[in-house]
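note to self: dont lose this again. the chain is below, predicted strucutre after it. 318 aa total, dont forget to put it in the shared folder this time
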Amino acid sequence: MASKIKVDEITTTSETGELVLANGVGLDCSQSTGILKLPRGTDAQRPSSSSLVGGELRFNTEDNRMEFYNGTEWFKMGPPPFSLYEDSYFNAFIAYMSGVKTTWASSGTNFQYATDSSDDRIQDAQSDMYDGGNFTQIRNNGSQSGNIGYNSSYGTYSSLKHGQLGYSWPLVSICVAPVDDTARTYGYSRSGNLGADGGGGTVGSVTVYSNATVQGFTPVNAWLVNKAWNQSSDPGVMHLYCTVGHPQWNSSTSNGFTTTDFSTSSNSDFSYYQSTSTNCFVWTALVSNGQTVGAMTQGQAQTFVNNFLASAKTHFGY
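---
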């Protein structure tokens, strides 16, 4: 005959603090609609492995993940809500996206600039355009890094991790802030000779997406700057910026367009983009629809963003 006792609290008196059940006896919590609180603490607060046999379970407060001891080491149970800041996840994402980036541009917007030995800029594109131009920087709370190189697959700036997808077109960089960082405003900027020398079309910007849902990602905010164009020998260049969140990441964006600014000059000018977002990532691309064609449209930019996020969706598996 089974016996039952009902208590509000059980306090152990042994030195180990363990509640030991006899062999063959289980602990049934199925009648409760409450919760089972597990031991919790940091890595440093883990019990000594000498007292463990395998099968122990706890909650790690350093990365907000369940973990169990497999008899040899502590093993994390699944990714946290947002895992892209972890090196292994971030590097795998950069490697995958590097291999598929040539599939993102819409028809007519996949013009390929000649590349050279300087992987942080466009140099002598077609004629004298962009000499030492289109440098890219990481921006953090209004400050900016030095110029990043597109062959440098990984780097950090003010705790922001950034990875580049190689020095071939389109030129793309992806940046991510620490998990649950709610106070950071970050993104990218470009400087130097961004447009045709002494002329070209009217410089302007386009809101590509505002708090949208794209390929299951939300919120998605994207902004495009069309630089000078329509020269007989100089192709135009466009700056595409985008912030991406996802429901599984607990993402939030208090302002997807915290900083959006650009110069209307065609020489020695700039463009800036920053968002205030948590558990998201920000990316940028240099794209072009070639010579004497004109500005990139909102629809063409949306196609690029859609295709980029379709690849990201395939990589993440949701």
